Amino acid sequence: MVCVNERATKFQPTLRLPQPEARLWKERRLAMDILKPRVVPMNRRRRIYEGKAKVLYEGPEPGTLIQHFKDDATAFNAQKHEVIDGKGVLNNRISEFMFQNLNDIGVPTHFIRRLNMREQLIREVEIIPLEVVVRNIAAGSLSKKLGIEEGTQLPRSIIEFYYKNDALGDPMVSEEHITAFGWATPQEIDDIMALAIRVNDFLSGLFLGAGIRLVDFKIECGRLWEGEMMRIVIADEISPDSCRLWDIKTKDKMDKDRFRMDLGGLIEAYTEVARRLGIIVEGERPASNGPRLVQ
Ligand code: UDP
Question: What is the pLDDT of residues 212-244, one digit of tens each?
Answer without folding.
Answer: 999 999 999 999 999 999 999 999 999 999 999
